[in-house]
Amino acid sequence: TPRELQEHFDRTIEREQRIEPRDWMPDGYRKTLIRQIAQHAHSEIIGMQPEGKWITRAPSLRRKAILLAKVQDEAGHGLYLYSAAETLGADRGELTEMLLDGRQKYSSIFNYPTLSYADVGVIGWLVDGAAICNQVPLCRSSYGPYARAMIRICKEESFHQRQGYELLLTMMRGTPEQREAVQDAVNRWWWPSLMMFGPPDSESRHTARSMAWKIKRHTNDELRQRFVDMTVPQAEALGVTLPDPELRWNPERGHYDFGEPDWDEFRRVIAGDGPCNAERIAVRRAAHEEGAWVREAAVSYAAKQAERAGR
Ligand code: FAQ
What we know:
The chain is mostly helical. The chain is about 70% helix and about 0% strand. Phenylacetyl coenzyme A (FAQ) binds near residues 36, 108 and 210.
């Protein structure tokens, strides 16, 4: 009966066991997961653009090989995540349509421009750093296919974070111009990185529900604090200043205090009005349209194979 199904689901969540695709789940649980996993997948694919732009302009063969590998990993992450969404009954083609016509979101962070090669390092350090902070707890998410995809993604994100930090260490040992480029990139990416964790808890419409379902394991503000605490010592080691005059250690709390991100800017960017929103979607749309023949060929090949097997 429906009541027994619901009880079985609740017990599974309560015992920290995983919900699998074949299990009964409430409609809201399925919808929330599709929304979050699709947004995450879209972010990985759109997130290839800001760094991808620098592949042809990498300063050395070594940097180019590293960047190529990183951007390819992001494509891979997008694919695991679309596959995880498909286990919930979502259709990948439809999810892409929803991204292109603005019915589904992708992370605000990818709507900012990359102005120099230092941005590649800062994206690795701060953006991948924030992504790891947010995603490590998702390895314990209650939905099996999502949690398992997250394990592999987090391992690769750690490599991305280290490559960013290593690039920045190299630039900080370089010329004054290189050090300035790093500081300038840090100034531009710091606040948008804090916004990756989502709105403040008081304005987050999904957190309470998603935590009760153990899809999310921490609130947006908890993870934002964890990221700040982790990053300040790294900034000191690197020799850069984080652009927040309110940033200071609070011995009573045992955490760093920090300033309030500009939430109006955040709302504008997720509403489609950030510096690069139009460009990101235009590039994604063009890639989708130019790839139509590949999808058609694959479908027609699969149909021929099936016909042959049937004979
Ligand atoms: N940008 O109620 P909440 C990466 C939306 S890392 C845009 O708090 P929730 C790696 C939210 O969807 C980036 N929209 O929502 C990489 C909701 O809108 P809706 C991707 C945002 O879901 C690195 C509304 O605001 N990571 O790609 C943002 O409980 C370098 C209300 O918010 C993930 O997606 C935002 N920053 O918590 C790749 C991680 N924040 O749907 C390439 C998985 C919130 O009601 C290069 N996702 N919104 O219209 C999550 O952990 C959660 O979904 C949160 C938001 C924490 C992002």
